[in-house]
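FAQ
Q: What does a multi-component entry look like?
A: The components come first, one per line:
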Amino acid sequence: MQDTFGQFKAYLARVRDLQMASAVLVWDRETYLPPAGAAARARQLGSLSEMAHERFVDDQVGAWLAALQPYEDSLPFDSDDASLIRVARRDYDKARRVPSQLVGDLARAASLGQQTWVDARQAADFSRFQPSLETLVDLRLAWAECFDYEDSIYDPLLDAFEPGLTTAPVRRIFDAFRPPLVDLVAAIRERHDRVDASCLTGDFDEDAQWDLGLQALKLIGYDFNRGRQDRAAHPFTIHFSSDDVRITTRFDPHNIASALFSSIHEGGHALYELGVSPALDDTLLGDGASMVLHESQSRLFENVVGRSRPFWRHFYPALQARFPRFNGVDLETFYRAVNQVKPSFIRVEADEVTYGLHIILRFELEEALVTRQLAVADLPAAWNEKMQAYLGLTPPDDALGVLQDIHWSGGMIGYFPDYLLGSMLSVQLYARARADLPDLEAQLERGQLAPLRQWMADHVHQHGRKFTLDELADRVLGTPLSPDPYLAYLRERYGEIYGL
Amino acid sequence: MQDTFGQFKAYLARVRDLQMASAVLVWDRETYLPPAGAAARARQLGSLSEMAHERFVDDQVGAWLAALQPYEDSLPFDSDDASLIRVARRDYDKARRVPSQLVGDLARAASLGQQTWVDARQAADFSRFQPSLETLVDLRLAWAECFDYEDSIYDPLLDAFEPGLTTAPVRRIFDAFRPPLVDLVAAIRERHDRVDASCLTGDFDEDAQWDLGLQALKLIGYDFNRGRQDRAAHPFTIHFSSDDVRITTRFDPHNIASALFSSIHEGGHALYELGVSPALDDTLLGDGASMVLHESQSRLFENVVGRSRPFWRHFYPALQARFPRFNGVDLETFYRAVNQVKPSFIRVEADEVTYGLHIILRFELEEALVTRQLAVADLPAAWNEKMQAYLGLTPPDDALGVLQDIHWSGGMIGYFPDYLLGSMLSVQLYARARADLPDLEAQLERGQLAPLRQWMADHVHQHGRKFTLDELADRVLGTPLSPDPYLAYLRERYGEIYGL
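Then the predicted structure of the entire assembly, as tokens:
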């Protein structure tokens, strides 16, 4: 049986190497690709995706999975080998439903779509991106139709990023969350003059912002021996092994918060991948388990920690040293500024409170799009209408509206809900960590983030994809994902700031 | 038949996409890879190389090649389709002799070897690199033993970079070339005081050097829409399609000539790949034909053009503008400085005259190495001995000696002779271009390099791998590669400078 398992593992390692190579090609496309290289890159990514898929869905893999069932049953559920067989079976059953050709078509369309999106966003002109998006929606729906779904065709799209997640619970959670969130936003709006965030805007040297970002990343424990930061049109995290986890960022020369919190957010994603057990490297378990779990880590470091008083008690002098203008701004003013709640156009720069409305807007639009209740052509108008309804704002152009996010250009439909669900989970995980680490906030105040990071590594990161979100929540929290602690957290932090 | 050819071409396009993906992974390794990522990268490159090889040597390819013979025979020799079938057959027959496992082992060892070499070179300590090199020599010899060779095991190693080239003619050419070259070096040494190159040394701002290099690359016609330059430990050119051809460079803060001529050299390689017909893209014809042809282009732009009076009559003001200290150096002094003949340690920075001796040294050492007349452990001593014999110098450490070149660390044994043969060819091609373009030198003086580049594109670049060196020399020159025009060129240019 060890022989069969060895062959199985070696075979899958090659599939994995193809996928990791694809990831390198994607990273390069987003960071350093010469403009004219986009067409060949799309072709290359299409071929690699097809080949990886073909290899993986080979009958031989099915035969190994069947033969390895007794071996799996003989092992503890959480052993590396049993987990690899179990998760490989889940992936295999899904992958077998999709033709390799469609996988390649999606990869090619996503690669070209990404380039078109960059151009369209730069020109703030949705019509340039519309044909690409129509193709991508069609292909993603063709992909979703490969699966049996009970309720909505949005189900398999959600499942792609969060295994097991379906539309109904997302709708239930968001429906319960939205009214109190809207109330909170309204209550804060009446007291908006309690916070003055003007210190965050001005002219901020890009090199100094870069250095500050690196310092923040080192503080949270990002290991530059095993990763690096580059510039890209949209910040993202990507990994090619647990020893090569990279992030990207972008700069707003007029806002010091933009790149900084973006870097910390991506740094949170990176810590997850860096924390996956090396024993899982070169296997399909060697990634973060799901996007909700991933966003729980990024949003935790960005917000729960990164916008907290203890964090800034330690880090504010570093910021002041790089930007002496802050010598005239006291810590409390700065703390309140980075926690200002104010409806705004751009999701990734939104405060924690209004952030949820950005996500709910996208969730509703995506659902309408994939159920064909909304045409791609009508997306900008629908976007602007919802922005007005939820946030009281109408984007002045598509770059500040429907074109702001990279996701759809890469065929990623069904991802956005995970940001909000992940934010909810981040608060649950933080509470659990604080219970285990009574000294936690004092540690943060001393700039000691290692105990928190180690707690996340022990409880979340190291397992890679061994456990689903539900399995992990059960192990770590003993309770499922819930919006209530998150709502309580928002009410407490922002209630205190705004004197509610 | 068109159907079979279409299937054949589509199948090979995927092999090609795997190879291009490998190239992206290599580029990334040399430019941006985090230190800890090297092990996974070696594994990934091993897998990709193995898979590309396995796909290519599949019996199906052989069946297609047999079935396509009548189609090939029905077409002109120089048609794209006939050439693809012909060159694919040549590649296939070679590839079939090598086990895929060995291909993967070589790729892994080369990837790890490269990393070890960087470290060893930095520490100027050959012993750190020795075990890697021993492995690489063993693997390359195992690879060479897969082939029938008549004369020397060095033959298949030469053939890997220059199809058809064997040891005997290389030895014959070098044996004929060396005595007059040694005489020329000796004659120049007696008049060394005719040239003062002190203006080239000092402190040169790296950003200004970078900008000057880009300006030179634009001048020779490198298209930054289809390429880019990055920093790396050793300069190289690499391509992922004819629309994505990249170069790297490195800087010596104390010598202005080092990075500049290196960039122009790599730019010459890049022009070749950028000039390959787009119709050959994503086929195995879509590369430069051979390394002798490649070096003919790089050495032509670096030396024949890049160190010529006409070139500098145009470009010197640009250099003076970036480095005002040269306002006090007249053009003739500068021209003579960049053509100073002076034995030195580093091949890539050597003048044109002594350059040949650097190559002959490597050729002799490689031959001794692969015929087991020289042990890897004895390489540094043998290197230093030959440096003393040929150039009158003993390297003060291994970094300036045996560790200076990247090639062996990547398993590239049998490449070096192509630099000198390419230099010889560059002079033959330039003479032919000048015959066709009577205004050529006046054009260079006006900064118009497009006609020369277009001539090379028409006669050399566009054909990609359709023709071998001999076939191309026959078409373009009507005469084979010869050392005589090169020797005459060296005598004329350097005789004039040194008053011989």
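Q: Is there any commentary attached?
A: Sometimes. For this entry: The two ends of chain A are 64 Å apart (CA to CA).
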